[in-house]
Amino acid sequence: MSHHHHHSPPTLNQNDINRSFIWGIILNIVYVFIELFYGWQQGSTALFSDAVHNIGDVSGLLLAFVAFKLQNVKSGKVLTYGYKKVSILASFINSVLLAFAIGAIAWEGIQRTIHPQAINGVIVSWVAFAGVIINFISARLFHQEKEGDLNIKAAYWHLMADALVSLGVVVSGIIIYYTHWYRIDGIVTIIIALVVLYSTWNLFKESWIGVLDGVPAEIDRDEIILHLSEIDGVIDVHHVHIWGISTNENALTGHVKVKDIKTLPLVKKSIKEELNEHGISHSTLEFELENENCNE
User: What is the pTM of this model?
Assistant: First the structure.
């Protein structure tokens, strides 16, 4: 019987990812300083709030980079999986930090909407346009590997969202230049907060599930059980637990009831192949015979 499989995550190139993180961090740090300077100089809350948002992204990139490096630290007697889980914790911390940034951004946006101030629309537009370019370039650095790691995926989509946010600030600067409607600066700031909230919620939810050793979002537990049960020689699959060891490695434990102990080597091989197709690289299985009752 043919199945529609979830292909396993692509192999990640360490050197390419290191280079992407380093350049992404450098580009965004430079842009944060540019935004902070002109946001303060021009009194633009949209620029200043976007800078605060980008500071959150820089910290997120730094956390993700450190976590990615720690994933390669060898396991020991106590930490038998090494520091792989740190990548999930980093993703969670990043989402929490962004949540605080959202609150500050939204508050400033509301204040500026109520009490608008005159600002230079041309400078706001040009600074924000630089952000569109920098964020888009930074995001493209992670495009190739984004499906292989939750942190890299989060970094990619955050940077793409930032490019769109910066584009919104460009538009607000143009509107200010031609209409002198300064209230748009605060309105765009509130929109930025909503965009960040949307992107952060998914990251928070996925990383929180990972912290609690829940089933990763890309894994369909019922489908896996169904496919394993249909393997020739397998009678039943139960007590299945699936969790993320890191942001790019998943594990499974379970009980498998088989018809004949003699077919066990072939059954095990088929199960491993099936699990690899679903993106599960680590598995621990307990096998039971047909007449055996599971007491767990």
Answer: 0.68
